[in-house]
Amino acid sequence: MSMFPETSITLLAQIAARTAGDDEAAWVRFFELYAPAIGKFVELQGTGRDPDDVVQEVLMKLVNVLREGRFKPGPVPFRAYLVTLIRRHLVSLWRKEQARGGGRFVPLEEDSASVPPEVVELIDLDWRLAKRRAAVEHVLTKTAVSPQSKAVYRAYVLEERPIGEVAKEFGIPRNSVSQIKTRLDRLVAAVEREMGD
Amino acid sequence: MRVHDLAVDAATGRPYFVMDLVLGAEGRPESLEDARRAGAVTEERAAAWLADLRDALAYIHAAGVVHRDVKLENVLVDRDGHAILSDFGVSRIFNRDLRAAAGLATQTFTGAAGAPRPVMGTLGYLPPEVKAGGEATAAGDLYALGVLMFRLLTGIWYEGGTDAFALLEPFELSWNEVLAPLLAADPAARRLPEEMPQRSQEGRRSFFGRIGARPSRVMWALVATALLGVAAAWWALRPPRTLPEDDFKSLFAVPSDYGRWEEAPR
Fold first, then answer.
1. Is B180's Cβ below 8 Å from some Cβ in A?
2. pTM for the full model?
3. Which of helix, strand or coil describes residue B215?
4. Considering only CB atoms, which chain B residues are within 8 Å of A17?
């Protein structure tokens, strides 16, 4: 019988498997993919805080949670757990600042149990957007796709410029622009799949 | 990576060996994983590294050694940019003569019936047969090399299936042709690539359309000159435009009623 699950190798599955000697690589990969996503999520919350600081603090909590096996994959997806963790962290930071007489932002709620479902849905959308942006950044900075293709994708998808304008600038047919978008979108989706849900 | 010396430390009694010191262009150790994370991988560099690793694996396999942990972190890049396969910590010698020379007993798995075989290697790089509890062989090294290259290019893990190969479409070299034989599910079907990836057909045919291949002014001038040459040759060699003799005469013949029209009754 196989010692490993036959399902695809998501990052979370790798960390959960805790294969001897593989922990470090899995953690490095976890930070590589999740740190940008967490940073972008914090930006979307509009807290005015330095996302890098929050990322470090949240990751330290996450490491403990995952290493101690406190997160149990089940009906609750990892993203819901992670988002709650980040928002609780932001609220605790706000409380500390309030106690010191400061505080630059007011979180939507202090108690996650009292969050209306519409807000939960919006928060979930924020996380999906942050994750997508992190995956796009990963494809544009950590793959061997040609600089020219990356530039076309950046102009057409991220800057939302008209296809004709992009085609003219790069001296390529319009269908080549569409083709680049389709192919790199596929890579972006694969990065998101590897991050897990 | 070469081993220069084997010895025992006089003070501690611990054995040690002396290997090449491999430093990258920045003067510090650099692995392929470092290069990937720094976003410093191009298709051309990846193809050159594949050639280096192919030669390294062909060499050790011919010598009866299986590496068993081929991965990005275990390949160093030297000052000249060559890939050096390192870390033979979990490798295994299958060559009987080499084993005897090294004073190693013939190793066979002797675990209890039904007990899982101890797995060496890194999860994401393990071939299907090893995940299923089989033994790591030279074919497993080839699979790991395929995963390594896939990861180097796309930044993600290889998960198998045709969808995975579709992820290689954005690239300009024919990676599918090279990686498919390495990543074959059947270990017996795996092969080291003889040829390195070439510019894909799409890249070759799209002289006017390929990304980054705008025709230069010189190329336009050559095309214009060629067209002019063809036109001049056609003009010079065109068939003579002559009329048949009768037609020629009839063209200048004086009509029989010429000059009489004035006398014609009105």
1. no
2. 0.73
3. coil
4. 123
